Amino acid sequence: MTGYDMRSILKCVRCGTCRSVCPVFDVVGWESASSRGRMLVAHGISQGLEVDESVLNSINMCTTCGICEQLCPSGAAPPKVIENIRHQLVLQGKMTQAQKDISSRANELGNTLGETGERMAWLGESGADVREKADYVYFAGCLGSYRYPELTRRTFDILKKFGVTVLKDEVCCGSPLLRTGSDPLALVSRNLEQIKATGAHTVITGCAGCYTTLKNDYPDDLKVIHVSEFLADRLAEMDLKKLDLKVSYHDPCHLGRCNGVFDAPRDIITSICDLKEMKNIRERSRCCGAGGGVLKGYPELSLELSKKRAGDIPEGVDYLVTSCPLCRTNLKRGSPEVEVLDIIDLLEMAMEQKP
Asked: Which residues contact 151 (CB under 8 A, 6 or more apart)?
């Protein structure tokens, strides 16, 4: 355990503030499923606690949503401690099957989904005139490439009008590995080599997991923005028409709370239609339940977390909008009564309404 982790653990005064906001504790109810409990478990591991299945579950049920760190009065950072202790355990060969699968798939296939098909197939005809060099490069991500290929292609078609290029041999950004304790260096190096080859100074992505990884775990000289930030600055150039809709917006944890991107998605939404906010928003937003490897490792828990978040959707909205494909995937599971859209879907609806 690093000195930083131990200092963070010792900052914890066991006040229980985190218990009142931890989404996993809210569902599971056990102390070991709360941020406070996990800090105690992490400290126990550092002192020789035997790592059995219950310990692995405690450490790996955390979605790394960061609301505990946001509200901790002592300044502790449980998500970072959890990610680091996961890494230390993985180095010792102590991990769940889900962790093994995420790592092996990413390193062998370039994606965490087990897909063997061509990653960039989503480009279709849009790949005919991709620039070799550009100031901006679009990073599609695993989910964008394989689960939402049409949305990804349409996103790039919009970005391409502003001179944005794409990586033709993109691989997983490494976020799922970092969150679950594995080493993403090979993937990071492969992506970095391509980014440098394009000459781009800025990477654009539509995935919150890709965003936080590219921004915080890649070299500091790489500028990273979310697609909503890029397009919010160019709304005047897009000739959008107002829609007679009411929508609500879900803040992805790794885009909003962890990186402060709150306004750009809302600027896009309010330029198009009425925004009716969810019960818990911005820094206090509830987690969708998918992050930190929880959707893969604990799908039933992840579903319950999604249902809890769905309870924050206000009545009378036409759509729930978000800015992350992982959030969208899990929110669709937990809120089948309300259709879940990516913010690009909403943007395109306004573009299609042009006279």
From this structure: 144, 325, 342, 344, 345
Q: What is the pTM of this model?
A: 0.93
Range of the domain at 189: 119-232
Q: Mapping DSSP to helix (H, G, I), strand (E, B) and coil, where does residue 274 land?
A: strand
3-state secondary structure of 246: strand
CATH at residue 325: 3.40.50.1860
Is residue 110 situated within a structural domain? no
**Is 281 within 8 Å of 252 (Cβ atoms)?**
no
145-172 pLDDT per residue, tens = 999 999 999 999 999 999 999 999 999 9
Q: What is the dihedral of CA 282, 288, 290, 292, to 10 degrees?
A: 30
Structure tokens at 71: 């509200």
Question: Reduced to 3 DSSP states, what percent helix, strand and coil does the chain have, rounded to the nearest 5?
Answer: 55, 10, 40
Number of domains forming the structure of the chain = 3
